[in-house]
Amino acid sequence: MVLNNCDMFDRLFNIFKANLGSVLPNQDRVSDEDRELSRQYDEWKQQQDRQSQSKDSGGSPQHTFLREDQEHFVTLELRTGASFEEIKASYKRLIKQYHPDRFHNDPSKYKTALEITQRLNRSYNYFEQKFGK
After folding, report:
1. What are the φ/ψ torsions at residue 11 (nearest 5 degrees)?
2. Considering the entire predicted model, what is its pTM?
3. What is the set of domains in the chain, with CATH numbers?
């Protein structure tokens, strides 16, 4: 099995993270610098994963996703880094499922569906602006 530098770094960092908990059971002992390094590594790893996915999918345009994007992906029931086509399909499916007109006979369900629809619209509009559609 041949490992490239990214895989080796990834394995070493996972070993470090696993052993850090056993060596330092009290999380207060972990320095702010170590936490920052861990956060930077997580962001770097996500970027590497997105780049490898874009190469596999034929080289679609690269978009950088932030932590605030995660909330919108969760709202649309998608994995982080989904393409705009996947976002659009999920949005349409969820809007059909939760549209308030389907629940006009039940006031409590109608109110809930209205709130869900508003969140879906907010998330979809966010991605429209992000992708420039």
Report:
1. -65, -45
2. 0.51
3. 5-56 (no CATH), 67-131 (1.10.287.110)
Give the integer Cα–Cα distance in Å for 131 and 133.
6
Convert 39-58 to b/e letters by CB count within 10 Å (16 or more is b).
eeeeeeeeeeebeeebeeee
Output the 3-class SS for 29-62.
HCCHHHHHHHHHHHHHHHHHHHHHHHHHCCCCCC
Task: Answer for the pair 95, 117: CB distance below 8 angstroms, yes or no.
Answer: yes
Q: Is residue 109 within 8 Å of 97, Cβ to Cβ? A: no
Q: Residue 54 has which token pair? A: 């874009």
Over residues 88-115, the pLDDT tens digits come to 999 999 999 989 888 888 888 889 989 9
- 13 Cβ contact list (under 8 Å, min separation 6): 41
